[in-house]
Amino acid sequence: MKNLFSVSGKVVLVTGGSRGIGEMIAAGFLANGAKVYLSARKAEACAETAARLAREHGGECEALPADLSKIEGVTALAQALAERESRLDVLVNNAGASWGAPLGSFPEAGWDKVMDTNVKGVFFITQALLPLLRAAASKDQSARVINIGSIDGIGKPIFETYSYGPSKAALHHLTRMLAARLAPEHILVNAIAPGPFPTWMLSTGVGFGGKVEGDGVDWEAVGRTNPSGRVGTPEDIAGLAIFLASRASAYTVGEVITCDGGLLVSR
């Protein structure tokens, strides 16, 4: 029982890991003894985050930048990881995009970018990494895929992000389909549906201009709209991800677990 939640020694890839929820999850794995690879579209930011997390938490954290909205980026990331590792214990599909615009002027570019990143990219990077996931999978030690969805894919979104909610709903259903197909191979697929966390993406929606701290940023005010009275913390999201990557969740398959402080059930 003492090792029920252990992720020590696991090889983990976190996409969209240079900031926000991806960075929080990566930090949690690194602090608990996993070897972590970060991927993000912007190479410089990805490298800076990987170096900082390694300094703060110890262990190995390496940047593998890629644009997962394009098949070329998916292929490049899978090849880069295969050159470094013979297995992948945990894939965290966190890379995501959003786009806000009024209904009457919502552009095709905003639809395609979000769907390509949030749905197509998740499917094809999972497909490309199946050989490494299969190499890590056994009856006693399952490999894991954790897809990061959203409560906006379950309930009605607050903002006019017309492609975001549908993309996350699609991701939740893709999670169930992949779970059914891969569970017999000892690759367990689940999803997390986060609510409000202090991220760049939410900051742009609530009027903080993309800032997550500093002048004009008041996460306490945002948190007061939540039944829990706060926004999420790194411990909240990392703890759930570690549960889904550890022995503790070995009988949990195809679930979409909310992590929102009660916001969804209160609407």
Per-chain topology:
Blueprint: E1 11-15, H1 20-31, E2 35-39, H2 43-57, E3 61-63, H3 71-84, E4 90-93, H4 108-128, H5 130-136, E5 143-148, H6 164-182, E6 187-194, H7 200-206, H8 219-223, H9 234-245, E7 256-259, H10 263-266
Parallel strand pairs: 1-2, 1-4, 2-3, 4-5, 5-6, 6-7
Helix pairs in contact: 1-2, 1-9, 3-4, 4-6
Describe this structure in words.
β1, α1 and β2 (35-39) form a beta-alpha-beta unit. The protein is 43% helix and 13% strand. The protein has one domain: NAD(P)-binding Rossmann-like Domain (Rossmann fold, 3-Layer(aba) Sandwich), CATH 3.40.50.720. The protein is of the alpha/beta class. The longest helix has 21 residues, at 108-128. The chain has a seven-stranded parallel beta sheet with strand order 3-2-1-4-5-6-7, with helices on both faces. The model has no long low-confidence stretch (mean pLDDT 96).
Brief summary:
The chain has 10 helices and 7 strands. The protein has 267 residues and is of the alpha/beta class.
Instruction: Please report the first level of CATH classification, the CATH class.
Output: Alpha Beta
Query: Helix amount, in percent?
Result: 40-55%
Low-confidence runs of at least 5 consecutive residues: none
Cα Rg: 17 Å
If you consult CATH, what is the topology? Rossmann fold
Strand content: 5-15%
Q: What is the annotated CATH architecture?
A: 3-Layer(aba) Sandwich
Main sheet record = 7 strands, parallel
Element pattern in H and E: EHEHEHEHHEHEHHHEH
Please report the total strand number as a whole number: 7
**Strand order of the main beta sheet, please?**
3-2-1-4-5-6-7
In CATH, what is the homologous superfamily? Answer: NAD(P)-binding Rossmann-like Domain
Sheet/helix structural class = alpha/beta
